[in-house]
Amino acid sequence: ANLSKRLDGLPVTVFDLSPLGYEFVGAGRSGMPFDKVPSGHLIYRKLTPTGKIAGMVSVFVAPARGCCKRMIEKLRPREWQTASDGARCQHRVLYSTDRKLVYFLVCCDESDLDPAAQIIAQAAAASK
Fold first, then answer.
1. Which of 9, 57, 64, 103 is 20 to 30 A from residue 51's alpha carbon, by CA?
2. How does pLDDT run across 71-100, given as a tens digit for each residue?
3. CA distances (Å), 47 to each of 4, 21, 44, 113, in order?
4. What is the pLDDT of residue 82?
5. pLDDT at residue 30 greater than cutoff 80
6. Is the pLDDT of residue 33 over 90?
7. CA nearest 27: which of 8, 46, 10, 13?
8. Is residue 40 helix, strand or coil?
């Protein structure tokens, strides 16, 4: 609810990534470099049996209006594309839109990237 307030009242879904071993741990400001566009960050983690962090997943969200217009105008809703990785990004990043929000997906373990994207797309489709 707090994240939704930050995103102009647009509802934000907390996705269930437990099939991949991740739990939702929180949300907050994203720090994404969007000029004057509110954005947020959903944070997930995977723990080892001893309780140490084994992996992280970040889902960055921002309102589609005014955000990355050139990137998303070619996307169909819930279609994922690979974002160009700049010098500051050490991971492959997938991005998608539901026409109201833009999603950027980053996984520490890149093998979880495509399965996480599929879970998110299915959850978004079911919520429509």
1. 103
2. 777 788 888 888 765 565 667 788 888 888
3. 27, 8, 10, 17
4. 85
5. no
6. no
7. 13
8. strand
Q: Is the pLDDT of residue 35 over 60?
A: no
CB-based burial of residue 56 (10 Å sphere; 0-12 exposed, 13-18 middle, 19+ buried)? middle
Which run of H or E residues covers position 28? strand 23-29
Question: What does the block give as tokens for 52?
Answer: 């140490």
The tokens for 32 are 């994404």
Q: Which residue bears the tokens 């995977």?
A: 46
- What is residue 84's predicted lDDT score, i.e. its pLDDT? 65
For 16, 39, 68, 104, 128, the CA distances from 32, given in Å and listed in that order, are 23, 7, 11, 10, 26
Q: Which helix (H) or strand (E) holds 56?
A: strand 53-63
* Predicted structure pTM score: 0.84
The encoded tokens of residue 112 equal: 């979880």
Mapping DSSP onto H, E and C, the string for 78-94 reads CCCEEECCCCCCCCCEE
The dihedrals phi and psi of 101, each to the nearest 5 degrees, come to: -120, 150
Q: How far apart are CA 128 and CA 123, in angstroms?
A: 9
